[in-house]
């Protein structure tokens, strides 16, 4: 079973990496279910996917709410009869030095980037365990592999993702449930992510970096497509996606 006809739930599908991935997978014959908070954006993206002949459904989703993830997965089942893949991609990156004490943003990152990922995992795990088939792809960051000043809390949420995916992979192997767990570590990808940074010094530095080296979100979408396209007994578990200009 390749990308074609797979049912793929995508969080953070209203822009950037999630939007690009939804469009690519739908073009390649997957049935995509889009979740994010901005429903009007989801409606526009769904319309463009349908206009191109793709199959799509969407639902306003806040990943901080476990019930929203459950409802998104339920939509996949009612619309398309099941779920094969969760792309756990929603996230925010309001980076800042720890000493600046943007504690409300710390909470938001933990709630969205970490708790939101866990809510997605919880929503699919019962079906994936029962059907002995499923794939969870989660967007970490190069800040989930290396330490970057300014990305202390953001990086903490993204390091956590690596641990979760790898443990799911190992537990699934032990339990014989065939769940494939994949972590993505993108570098500088030009999306709307900068809009979540309120710390002005951090924003200035990031904007310069992205201007100089950033690449488009299709680079990540291609990798997601590749991971889903592998044979069922192959788990390509980690991908780092750097722009060639990023050191
Ligand atoms: P965007 O800002 O373009 O996309 C972020 C997506 O997450 C949007 O669709 C947004 O939708 C959604 N989102 C944010 N908060 C919530 C929430 N509470 N509930 C549901 N959806 C939410 O940025 P990217 O595409 O770059 O970000 C996607 C992922 O990639 C993130 O996890 C980010 O950390 C990661 N990443 C990005 C990198 C980059 O350079 N761009 C580098 C490394 C990792 P909405 O606002 O409508 O809810």
From TrEMBL:
Keywords: Oxidoreductase. It holds the Pfam family adh_short. One of its GO terms (molecular function) is oxidoreductase activity, acting on the CH-OH group of donors, NAD or NADP as acceptor. The keyword Oxidoreductase applies. PROSITE patterns: ADH_SHORT (PS00061). This is Serine 3-dehydrogenase. InterPro entries: KR_dom, NAD(P)-bd_dom_sf, Sc_DH/Rdtase_CS, SDR_fam. CDD domains: SDR_c. It comes from the Bacteria. Residues 6-192 form the Ketoreductase domain. Belongs to the short-chain dehydrogenases/reductases (SDR) family. Gene3D superfamilies: NAD(P)-binding Rossmann-like Domain (3.40.50.720). The keyword Secreted does not apply.
């Amino acid at each position: 079973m390749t990308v074609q006809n797979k049912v793929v739930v995508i969080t953070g599908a209203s822009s950037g990496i999630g939007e690009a991935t939804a469009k690519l997978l739908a073009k390649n014959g997957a049935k995509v279910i889009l979740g994010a908070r901005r429903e009007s954006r989801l409606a526009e993206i769904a319309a463009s996917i349908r206009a191109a002949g793709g199959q799509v459904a969407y639902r306003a989703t806040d990943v901080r709410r476990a019930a929203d993830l459950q409802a998104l997965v339920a939509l996949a089942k009612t619309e398309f009869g099941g779920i094969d893949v969760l792309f756990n991609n929603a996230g925010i990156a309001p980076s800042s030095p720890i000493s600046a004490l943007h504690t409300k943003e710390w909470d938001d990152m933990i709630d969205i980037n970490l708790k939101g990922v866990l809510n997605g995992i919880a929503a699919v795990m019962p079906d994936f365990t029962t059907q002995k088939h499923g794939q969870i792809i989660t967007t970490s960051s190069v800040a989930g592999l290396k330490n970057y000043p300014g990305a202390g809390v953001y990086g903490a949420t993204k390091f956590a993702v690596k641990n979760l995916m790898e443990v799911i992979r190992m537990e699934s192997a032990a339990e014989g449930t065939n769940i494939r767990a994949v972590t993505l570590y993108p570098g500088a990808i030009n999306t709307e992510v900068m809009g979540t940074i309120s710390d002005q010094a951090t924003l200035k530095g990031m904007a310069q970096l992205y201007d100089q080296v950033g690449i488009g979100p299709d680079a990540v979408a291609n990798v997601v497509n590749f991971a889903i396209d592998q044979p069922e007994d192959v788990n390509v578990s980690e991908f780092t996606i750097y722009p060639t200009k990023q050191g």
